[in-house]
Design brief:
This is Glycosyltransferase. This protein is α/β, with parallel strands linked by helices. It is 40% helix and 18% strand. It is built from 14 helices and 15 strands. Strands 3-2-1-6-7-8-9 form a seven-stranded parallel beta sheet, sandwiched between helices. Helix 3 runs antiparallel to helix 14. The longest helix has 19 residues. The C terminus is likely disordered.
């Protein structure tokens, strides 16, 4: 198959979506397919194989994410040259609209992955004054109903889309991760480089430092954990708009360290150097950091939800906290049981279901089934919608000027 992936977020931007798309591309190419990625420009991007970048500007109130404002017809020309068999959109915004436009022109199916539970992110757009939860429901339904199928990374997301009254086929396919080798000597060397001793118990927080990630709750809980167990250390990896406030919050606790943003290629070192991954976010729909943690044999303590319950069948994967059992209590209890040998290590054999290979296989099956069932429908109504949104993007983002592509 010749496959077009359309996304507003891709490397060098650091995000779970970018990681998911890179993993998917690698797996599809490994299985013999040809993949081209259509995405936004980025000031830090370099020339890359199979990447088409459209002129873009930072998104309102979310400056490290970008939105394309022209180049859709160029995308169509390139898509024709590649003779695409299927369009797979990964955003509901600019490149998502470009993908829909191309699928309608080429009369090929459009699959969409619904990565983000936007009801948790409306505060990024004019502090939630412009887009609210009911708007998310309507816009999500408008977008997803104009596809031939939707992939969700979790049952939680699938159920939410059904609540939105979306009736197209939905496949729950969690993003897979590479399963790296575990090297104890390498782990000890890196811990030493980070300034930790063999006696230190390292808790890892690895995420974008933003409001919805609730890292402030992790720091607050850690202060209590550290008082009860002075061997504990908290390593905060990542960057974002909340970093300054979080550093101020942790100023009075010397056991908390911030290392900022890291290159994705070095992520596994941090997972393997830690003893427990901690996360208080309630906005995760696919939780790539959780899967990456498991893949590196690192158990987690996180806020309870049905997604995590479904991917944590055994105690060696970690524990969940809720309203009745605080993060502080769950972490201390888990560390105690781990130290006493009650909890076994994560075994490689238990990780097959979250592997990148399994992910690629399941998406490939969904593509084949969708193409088999596809029959081109009249896109006149969507074409009108596309044109109006395209003009709106142009007027709002660049404030007038030529609308020619």
């Amino acid at each position: 198959m010749n496959i077009g992936l359309f996304t507003d977020s891709y490397f060098p931007q650091v995000s779970g979506v970018a990681t998911s798309i890179e993993t998917l591309r690698n797996q599809l190419e490994h299985r013999g397919h040809k993949v081209i990625i259509f995405t936004t420009t980025d000031p830090n991007a370099t020339m890359e194989r199979g990447i088409v970048r459209l002129p873009s500007v930072p998104f309102v109130s979310f400056q490290d994410r970008r939105i394309a404002y022209r180049g859709f017809d160029r995308c169509l020309k390139i898509a024709r040259e590649y003779n695409l068999d299927i369009v797979h959109t990964h955003t509901e915004f600019s490149l998502g609209l470009a993908g829909k436009y191309i699928a309608s022109r080429l009369k090929i199916p459009n699959i969409h992955t619904y990565h983000t539970m936007y009801e948790k992110y409306t505060h990024y757009i004019f502090n939630g004054e412009l887009i609210q939860a009911n708007h998310v429901r309507v816009l999500s339904r408008m977008f997803c109903e104009k596809t031939q199928g939707v992939i969700t990374p979790s049952v939680i997301t699938s159920n939410k889309l059904r609540e939105y009254n979306i009736k197209v086929p939905i496949a729950v396919i969690p993003t897979g991760v590479e399963i790296p080798s575990f090297d104890e000597a390498r782990r000890q060397t890196f811990r030493t480089q980070l300034g930790y001793t063999d006696e230190d118990v390292v808790l890892l927080s690895l995420s974008r430092l933003s409001k919805e990630k609730n890292v402030d709750q992790v720091i607050a809980a850690f202060k209590e954990i550290n008082q009860a167990n002075t061997s504990t250390k908290l390593l905060v990896v990542g960057d974002g708009p909340a970093r300054a406030d979080l550093e101020l919050q942790a100023k009075d606790c010397s056991a908390v360290s911030f290392v900022g943003e890291i290159d994705h290629s070095s992520v596994q070192q941090f997972y393997q150097a830690a003893d427990l991954y901690v996360n208080a976010s309630d906005s995760e729909t696919q939780g790539l950091t959780y899967l990456e943690s498991f893949a590196n044999r690192l158990p987690i303590v996180a806020k309870s939800n049905s997604y995590l319950e479904s991917i944590m069948p055994d105690v060696q994967f970690g524990a969940l906290f809720d309203e009745e059992h605080s993060m502080t209590d769950v972490v201390l209890d888990y560390l105690k049981n781990k130290a006493e040998g009650i909890i076994p290590e994560i075994e490689a054999e238990s990780l097959v279901g979250i592997s990148a290979e399994h992910f690629g296989e399941e998406v490939e099956k969904f593509y084949h089934q969708t193409i088999l069932n596809f029959s081109h429908q009249d896109n006149t109504m969507f074409d009108k919608l596309y044109t109006s949104i395209k003009e709106l993007i142009h007027d709002v983002v660049i404030g007038g000027g030529s609308k020619n592509e």
